[in-house]
Amino acid sequence: MKKLKMGMIGVGGIAQSRHIPAYLAIPEIVEITAVQDLDQTRAEEVAKKFHIPNVFANYEDLFEMVDAVTICTPNKFHAEIAIAALEAGVHVFCEKPMAISVSECEAMLAASQKANKILSIAYHYRFMETSRIAKQAMSKVGDPLVTRVQALRRRKVPGWGVFTNKELQGGGSLIDWGCHFLDLSLWLLNGPEPVEVMGTAYNKLSKIPSQINEWGTFNHEIFQVDDHVSAYIKFKDGSSMLFECSWAANIKEDITNISISGVDGGLNVFPLEIYRPEHGVFMTTTTEIEENPQDVDVLQARNFAESCLGEAELRCKPKESMKVTKLIEAIYRSSEKGSSIKLQ
Ligand SMILES: NC(=O)c1ccc[n+]([C@@H]2O[C@H](COP(=O)([O-])OP(=O)(O)OC[C@H]3O[C@@H](n4cnc5c(N)ncnc54)[C@H](O)[C@@H]3O)[C@@H](O)[C@H]2O)c1
What is the position in ligand 1's atom list of the atom closest to the CA of 123? Predict the structure, then answer.
């Protein structure tokens, strides 16, 4: 079977902890042949650590020897590098979010269509067993009415890397963490069209110098991004979403959940439960799922590689990821404007 020659661009935390190990777990279809990073020393170290034969100083020089690239740079560079790769005839797997703005996403999508090459974004929650079964169980919910999303951390602003750098990341808790839950919700709901968005982004807590943080340290004085966001989203099909995400909320403990109430039943994603009136009583179905994060990473890597090789259907399509960025952009704009944003 043909192997996909993979180049890694930006080989910091997520490339080393998730994507390189995942590709190394499927050697029958992927071979990592090259790495590139702005930090040349890091690129050399990573190549040595994972036995990758070629190191490049510029990403353009890497395109010649690969079939696909995986982009794990700060968000600001996703669009620029993805478009360059697609124009060079290389498939692209890019870390989330797709890009900082909708216009960048549109340019990425156009480049992928023009080159007829695959573009996919690393929304890995779709590959969790819980999510995959929840997607099937949506048939029990019927037409969705209200979706509630809560992705709340009590005191976990990522105090490393560039997560709190607005210029490089485009935002904070919403674009970094909330994006996964917008993506997963939209996927479960079969991609409804958002028509109106009202959002508020806060960053009061993280500006307080004495603030407690469990995930490293950061400079409170120059903290510019959101650490807590709430939003209300109306969809064209009449359904709505109550959304909240935070890196640092004053709550008892972290909460991660999506729950969907529909006409025929309800569904809770974390943990997966189904609620339905049946046999004249209201029944709750619970599940026993043990997630293995490595399995999720490998399933995601396999789906991208097999899609490039023409052997699978891509699970995370770029138009869907662009819709997530559309919502993120609308929430931030609504917050700045102080009123709702109409999207259609
Ligand atoms: N899917 C997830 O849950 C998840 C988790 C963490 C990070 N991420 C995403 O992954 C991306 C990278 O995050 P990270 O935590 O690995 O960051 P990181 O800072 O650890 O690594 C980023 C690497 O990119 C390199 N780099 C910066 N600009 C570059 C450029 N123009 N060209 C080439 N290399 C460049 C840096 O030198 C660094 O080695 C971000 O988009 C982030 O949102 C996703």
Answer: 1
Cβ neighbours for 38, distance < 8 A, ≥ 6 positions apart: 10, 73
Distance 221 CA to ligand 1 centre (A): 24
Residue 46 CA to ligand 1 center (angstroms) comes to: 14
pLDDT of the chain, 344 residues: tens digit per residue = 689 999 999 999 999 999 999 999 999 999 999 999 999 999 999 999 999 999 999 999 999 999 999 999 999 999 999 999 999 999 999 999 999 999 999 999 999 999 999 999 999 999 999 999 999 999 999 999 999 999 999 999 999 989 999 999 999 999 999 999 999 999 999 999 999 999 999 999 999 988 889 999 999 988 999 999 999 999 999 999 999 999 999 999 999 999 999 999 999 999 999 999 999 999 999 999 999 988 999 999 999 999 999 999 999 999 999 999 999 999 999 999 999 999 97
Kindly list the protein residues whose Cβ atom lies closer than 6 A to any atom of ligand 1. 9-15, 37-39, 42, 72-75, 77, 95-96, 122, 124, 161-162, 176
Residue 11 carries which side chain, given as an amino acid letter?
A: V
DSSP states of 249-298 as a string? -SSSS-EEEEEEEESS-EEETTTTEEEEEETTEEEEEE------HHHHHH
Question: Residue 97, preceding bond cis, omega within 30 degrees?
Answer: yes
In the chain, what are the domains?
A: 4-122 (3.40.50.720), 126-292+325-342 (3.30.360.10)
**How far apart are alpha carbons 317 and 120 in whole angstroms?**
6
Does residue 271 have a cis bond before it (omega within 30 degrees)? Answer: yes
- Residues ≥6 apart with Cβ < 8 Å to 132: 126
CA of 318 to the centre of ligand 1 (A): 19
Q: Could you tell me the two tokens for 87? A: 């124009």
